[in-house]
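Contributing new records

If you add data, match the layout below exactly. Sequence lines come first and carry their own label; structure lines follow with theirs. Keep one chain per record. Anything else will be rejected by the validation script.
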Amino acid sequence: MLSVLSYGRLVARAVIGGLSQTDGRDYSLVTASCGFGKDFRKGILKKGMCYGDDACFIARHRSADVLGVADGVGGWRDYGVDPSQFSGTLMKTCERLVKEGRFIPSNPVGVLTSSYYELLQNKVPLLGSSTACLVVLDRRSHRLHTANLGDSGFLVVRGGEVVHRSDEQQHYFNTPFQLSIAPPGAEGAVLSDSPEAADSSSFDVQLGDIILTASDGLFDNMPDYMILQELKKLKNTNIESVQQTARSIAEQAHVLAYDPNYMSPFAQFACDNGLNVRGGKPDDITVLLSIVAEYTD
């Protein structure tokens, strides 16, 4: 096992210059989370891994590291339904399947599909909708496999630049693709997409790559250049540094969300769709920040 000092030196070299992909060593993700619920105290988890109506998980299995973010659709609150129940249960189910080894690292859509259909068959009625984004690192192959349904998503940053990103899925402005469970008899009246409709991708990663997985509360309030500025503060893979940077990103997005004079990405998108909108977008914010490191037991 590497000493803390040796490990830190190895990571520093990886972050600065990158290491060969042919060394045969396993990779892993060092991941921290931070978030804000728009209706709750700053930075406080509502329950489990939920920030407001957002939910997330971080899971490990012997073959892979898996992350997930889901954004519960707040409109269900108008019908007496807690939106966080659906997103939270979906993410907990995905996490359990991963920990039980009931998944294929190269097929995160399969994890999402299995989890969703398990919810549909739940004996206890569960109503609601959410987006979902899953990211899987196959430790041995050094490949990242992703599935994204809706407007949560991820960025992969290497050398200070975005080298991969998720594609947002929208039916129309501010109406993302989503998984749903409707009340009996109302299925046709509730927007619902198949988990197989999730956009999927696979690509190689390198030691020192930074992976940012988040709900739309982040991306609607912070453009890429602001995120990249914050990520420059991440110099190594110790969990304290990753946590501090995740918190810094979430805090900045939270402040901008309530700035009425700020032209946010969401406001710009609204203007592009013919709406006169300015300011940030008050929303739940969930940030999972990961850095690719050499795997150690």
